[in-house]
Structures are given as C-alpha cells and as structure tokens.
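G., before I forget:
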Amino acid sequence: MSVYKLNVFTCRAVWKCKAFSSRNMHLLQDKAFVNGRWIAAASNNTFQVTNPADGCVIGVVPDMNTADVQQAIGAAKSAFDSWQNTTAKERGKILRKWFDLMEQNGDELAKIMTAESGKPITESKGEVVYGNSFIDLYAEEARRINGEIIQSPMPSKKILIERQPIGVAALITPWNFPHAMITRKAGAALAAGCTVVVKPAEDTPLTALALAKLAEEAGVPQGVFNVITCDRQNASDVGNLLCTSDDVAGVSFTGSTAVGKILYKQCAQGIKRLGLELGGNAPLVVFDSANLAVAVNGTMASKFRNCGQTCVSANRLLIQSKIYDTYVDELSKAIKGLKQGRGDEAGVTAGPLINKAQFDKVSALVKDALDKGAKAVVGGKPAPQLGDLFYEPTMLVNVTSDMRVYNEEVFGPIATVLKFETEEEGIKIANSTNSGLAGYFFSEDVNQIFRVARKMEVGMVGVNEGLISCAEAAFGGIKESGLGREGSHHGIEEYTYYKYVCVGNLN
Ligand code: SIN
C-alpha cells in the first residue's frame, strides 16, 4: 500500500514535496517486506526518509530492531527449503519476470531514486538500466551453474563436484546506488538458489521497497526476497545479527572500509561466507601520450558521476608534466559546464550530497587542503543558495601527500590534481594507498597500456575509459577495498559452495 493511502500527515508532506507530483506511484511503500507480507516494526516505530535536495519528507518506513530482523531471517530460512530445490530454469523464469517489471516501471523507479538519493534523473534512469541488467544477466546465468565430473584415479570410484546454494544471504547495501547494489547481489543469490534478507541504507530504503513490490508482482515466492528497514541507531545491532546469526550462511556488504572491517570480524565467529565491496581511493593517471579530449571526458565521467559519490570515483588525478597545464585548463572548462541543482530539474548534472555527515566531511577535506596550500581553480565552497547539502563542483591543484584529500576517499565533487614526471613516479603515487578498488589511466602508447595495466594495484582498471561498470564484468577490489567479485558469472561464486561427491564400489 502506498504512503498516500495510509497516513494523512505523511500524504500532505509528500504532496507538498516537488519530488512526487504524481499520485500514481504504486511502488512507494511504507512497510517492510518480510515473508511475502508488508509489515510494520513490532514496536510500530518508524523513521522519515528525506529528499537531500530540499530536506522534504518523502516517505516514512519501519524502524526495525533485531527481533523484527530475526523474523525475516527465519522466513528466509524456511523459504530456502523449497527455493533451493527449484530448477534453475524456474528461478530464471521468475527473475526474468522481475526484470520485465523493472523495465516497465523504470520511470517510477528512477523518480523514487532521485527523490531519496538526490542524483540527477538522467543518472537515476541510467542506474535503472544498470541495476535491471543484473537481473537480466542472472536470469540467464542460473542455468549455467554447472558442476563437474573429474577423471577418477580409481575405476571403482566416480568423482563428482556439485555446486549448491549456501543458504540465507544477508545483503547490506549502500545509498549511492540504491537499486543496482541490491540487484547485483540479489540477482546472483537468487539465481544460485539462495534466499535473501536485504538491509538497505537508511537514506534510501524506498527504492529497495519498490524493488520488493516488483518482486512480489513477479511471483517471487514468499520468504525468498525480504527487505527490512531500520534507522541509523539500530543499524549496527541489525548488522551484527545478520553477521552472527547461525541461520545466515553468508553476508554481502557494499559500503565503507571502516564498517567492512567490523562486519569481517563479526563474520569470523561463524566462519561466514563474506563478500565485501569497500571504499576506494582511485588514481586516474593521464600520461603525456594520452588523447587529451578522451582523458578529460573520462575524468568527468569517473569523478562527477553521482556527484563523486561512488566507490570507483577517481579520487586523485595524476597528470604527467608535459600535458599538465592543458589538462587543467580543459578540465576546468568541463567542470564549469556542470549544472548543479535538484535532480528532478531538466538539464541538471550535479545534485546535492546525500546527507549532512557527507556534506561536513567534504567541506572539511577541502578546508584541510586549502589550509595546507592547495588552490581551488574551480569551486571550493558550499552552494547554500541551492540547498543545505549542495557543494560546488571543485578542482584543487597543488595537492600534496600530507592532505586528507590525497589519503582519504572524498566521496564528493572534488577533483584533486597532482603533477608527476616519469611513468615510474606516476605508478608509485597511484599505488601509494591501502585501497585497491578501481584505477584509471589514459595513454595512446600500446606498450605503456599493457605495462601500466599490469602494475596498477587495483581490482579493476579503466584504460582510456572512465566508466567501467556493467553486469557482465567482475566488479571488486584488492587490498582494503574488499573481498570477492560481484557481477558476471563470478558473482555466483559468492553464493554457492562446491560439494565433492564420491560414488564408490562401482563394478
Ligand atoms: C559503488 O560505488 O559502490 C558502485 C559503483 C558501480 O557499480 O559502478
């Protein structure tokens, strides 16, 4: 049932909100989805979801605690008994139906996403296509989860390797991609025969619930796909339960490295299967040999997508000395061409930051850099005329290794530029971090391309390309950026285990 039908006060707030001018949004939910039913928290507690562009309340959802979540885990565990025994073809068919409904409801999903995350509507539409593509892919991959028969050294024994689903998977997802981070995990899990409990970020639960609504319409059996919602103060207890419950077989988390380390420790207790897609500090290196226009376009795509709030955002721009001045000029022009504003306004390419904590962090990082001698060539300050959470797209030069922007993941619209002389120096700076998610470089020299791609200490490299994500590719990092891979057929690995079956005493 939509929020419009339930709570007259919320309805008024929502109607006043520019984000949802249409009353025909059937995907907006104000309940969690557990065991095929829409339920409130047992305590009846709720929390508000706001639009970062204007602070307006756009929804109210249950603030669940560990007792509520235990119920969801129980539902997923019961449903696993039958879901694991469905055929891959049956699971693929249901996933395909879910995908079709996501396609049909793409505009509504995008509107909800822009309202709760602030991202420009064109980016939300792009994320709908991207997010849907994981369900499309895994609808097909389900029937390619094959085992092996291995050559036996003994004629009386057959050696079979079967792949089986691990069980209940807990999926803890972030606010920066409210749709795609759910489908990337859930698509693989459901295809493998696992059941899931999704805990979306408190900033963006409405997209997750909209996906649950479509799962219900697609005929996903009850208990197979559950979405529980909770506010920030319940999040750590709920996370702890998901990581320590004996009934959860595996956890997949996308979010900060700091939280990932906590979950890693919690999962150790039960030796849980764990997938971690954590923070990055992506270098983007432009060599003298680069095509400048390609490099500037690639930088804009990588740095400013979702206002810089992506784990794979270029965090440090390393520019070789001969091309440095021209690159800085061209990049400044491109940044000045961005249009800031609320995501639902036509032509907007840069929205607000997600919340006050993120806004304060970005402001503090820029201040620290300016205090230590960096120069803002473009931007460099908040844009309060647009709203409380807007920060100007910024370019900082004269960045040095003692600055926080050099060492920390910025997660904001701040391009930080450093100059280097030789290829060795560029690679050394690029690798001088504990993170290793994505890295990018621009070069037209084929020998350099293969040399540098090999030397970059990251899980994913974009060569002459700033946008590398797609469902068919294996997404993930090394070092402190995570464990495991998502997307592609490799994504299924996280949700299956190999069982060796020895059939003996054969004649
Ligand atoms: C992320 O930022 O966590 C994901 C980005 C992507 O899938 O491209």
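The chain has two domains: 8-21+32-278+484-497, 282-470. The first helix runs from residue 3 to 6.

More on Monday.
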